[in-house]
Amino acid sequence: MNVEVVTIGDELLLGFTVDTNAAHLARELAAAGIGIVRRSTCGDAPDQIAAAVKEALDRTGAVITTGGLGPTSDDLTKPSIAAIFGRAMKFDDAIWEELKIRWKSYKWPGGIPESNKTQAMIPEGAVILKNRHGSAPGIWLEDDRGRWVAMLPGVPREMRGMLADELLPRVRARATGTPVVVASLTLRTIGIGESALADLLGPLAKGPPGLPLAYLPSVEGTDLRLTTRNSSSDVALEKLRAGAAQLRAVIGEFVYGEEKTDLAAVVLDLLRSRGMKIAVAESCTGGLLGARLTAIAGSSDVVVGGVIAYANEVKESKLGVRSETLRDFGAVSEETAREMAAGVCERFGVAVGAAITGIAGPGGGTPEKPVGTVCIAISAAGAIKSTKVQMIGDRDEIRRRSAQAALNLVRRALASS
Amino acid sequence: MNVEVVTIGDELLLGFTVDTNAAHLARELAAAGIGIVRRSTCGDAPDQIAAAVKEALDRTGAVITTGGLGPTSDDLTKPSIAAIFGRAMKFDDAIWEELKIRWKSYKWPGGIPESNKTQAMIPEGAVILKNRHGSAPGIWLEDDRGRWVAMLPGVPREMRGMLADELLPRVRARATGTPVVVASLTLRTIGIGESALADLLGPLAKGPPGLPLAYLPSVEGTDLRLTTRNSSSDVALEKLRAGAAQLRAVIGEFVYGEEKTDLAAVVLDLLRSRGMKIAVAESCTGGLLGARLTAIAGSSDVVVGGVIAYANEVKESKLGVRSETLRDFGAVSEETAREMAAGVCERFGVAVGAAITGIAGPGGGTPEKPVGTVCIAISAAGAIKSTKVQMIGDRDEIRRRSAQAALNLVRRALASS
User: Fold this and answer.
1) What is the ipTM of this complex?
2) Does the structure show a pLDDT above 90 at A68?
3) Is the minimum CB–CB distance between B37 and chain A shorter than 8 Å?
4) Hey, which CATH number is domain A181-258, 3.40.50.720, 3.90.180.10, 3.30.70.2860, 3.90.1720.10?
């Protein structure tokens, strides 16, 4: 079974909002064995909506729309699509009663405004998809040939809830035959680029036979995603496992996890298994490394905290970096990073300290230390390792790459200890 | 002049990747007075690419594609689109020479692999769009009726660079007549929800006449966006300015900036103008507030650093929170937050201290202090203000909302000082 998705809204079409609904819908449908063959976005104009939905319906016979149903929207989607099906709009008393109850719970002075009555208008013969996460209900409209359009709201939280509660069960019930499952497995790598990975993989660079390989570089490293289609869930998983093992045999040292594994979680697990605690000492990242570690639920058993040492006097007074070190080597140096790491270990009484100092830019670079120069030091059980890296990207990327690189250095220090 | 955008890739269609290219393209084109009337996404299959591009070309006559040109892609886009135009593919020596030079700079053993030769294949009669940001060049293909397709790579950095360097100048030169400019102005609010804003605005809730208003809630607050079309740039700006003034007259106290203004930058400017420095004391946010402040270039003149006090013993030893306070009121209390704020001011020798302590979840909640309970305190020039807030959302949202709320408290404390 195949569907098309039409996302509606000037905000999307004009690029003010990134369309996260489309990606969520696609993942949920693919996991249920329902294929998406096309996705379209059109603006908030009745003729645009009607054209995009009609073309999709003519191609595929099954269409999901998002947007244009909410309280502050102009509510264009329902009448535009009703017209495709040759249906009139009618006022639905039950929806209106529910809206009134909802507004009563808001304790709104004067109750629900009359202008909200458009929210209670639905096409004749429509089935209502309940919205437990907001006020605008969804709509299911179908013709006598079994062609259908499902209309969901555009607010991501409401759309996701309604998809799970109301639409997926309905679409699954329609799907006949063996579902075509699209399954994937991702290996997360760090410390090596896309081209170098492809070269190392050689004959496997485009994936093992029948398992196309995608390269997804980001500030967190390069993800490698294997995808398979046209298998049942069990067979797909087996194929993916075997394919991943082939890749790992070649590039295993760069792989830190699978799927959505966070490198910070890998580091926390390594610390936990060794009974070690960690503290951070951050200059150019200004708290980003601490934020990465504490973003993981349950991190409090191994993360005690740290010092954001943005100013040099804080590096001296709160971390014990010597003024001679700052004077002779500069704040951005492996020497300073090493003293920051050692200092935070000593002052916070922990086994592991991670320190970052660098030039995030856009200003502050010199010929010897250009923007992107970052020094990282890890003190683990008394042994200090440090490195100087040249990061690419803008200020934000340099900072995020620096935090990720520091996590990887902790991982490597602990893995070899 | 109108164009359509077709983004190509299984990764996009299956929802593994959120399509940020489409939003970027739309914004850049709209700002240049070129309208996007439809956006489509299709998978990495020649028939899907050919169908989506041909339909778009038949509707609009001007199509921009992204994706399917890179070194590890299967390079399906060029031949599929060449076929629509009835053109054969040919090997381009100049592209191949450039690729060889690029690979030489990589110092790759053995030089460029033969498999990269598909990157040098282009449709007959194509114009090459240079790629200064990566290896795969873009393609401009046009028929004798003036209908054209421009193919850009899918890697966002490369796509953005090529759009600015090569494509926009070319498309602008084509656009005839007065460009229809879509212009917008955003007011950023915090401390009030979408419905309450609409209610306060009353007759302005859907925007002043001719200026539709969009409500965009996020963890940073609720943005209000006014949009206007069909005016020249000057007139559009004047209309938007007047509309924004009407809104500000009603909801001004909640507005902290316009367009993409970062609340952290507003706070830094307030500190700078008062000659004050700030330090942070963070528990549940674990460095996020420090990261927000230091994300702004030039923050080092007012941000000295701070303490990530994730463990209670760090709150005591590094910030001077009294053990009685922790015992009697708990780590998540306004009392603890106030001592953290006062402590960081004293120990870091700054005028302003911002402290956050809370329960980010998913565990750790109690009936009295459920997940999302966050206490924030600001010490400014010796006066301490504090608040206890119930944040909604998951761990990540609670932490991000907490950092934003702390910034807003600093803003309010400084604005009234």
Assistant:
1) 0.76
2) no
3) yes
4) 3.30.70.2860
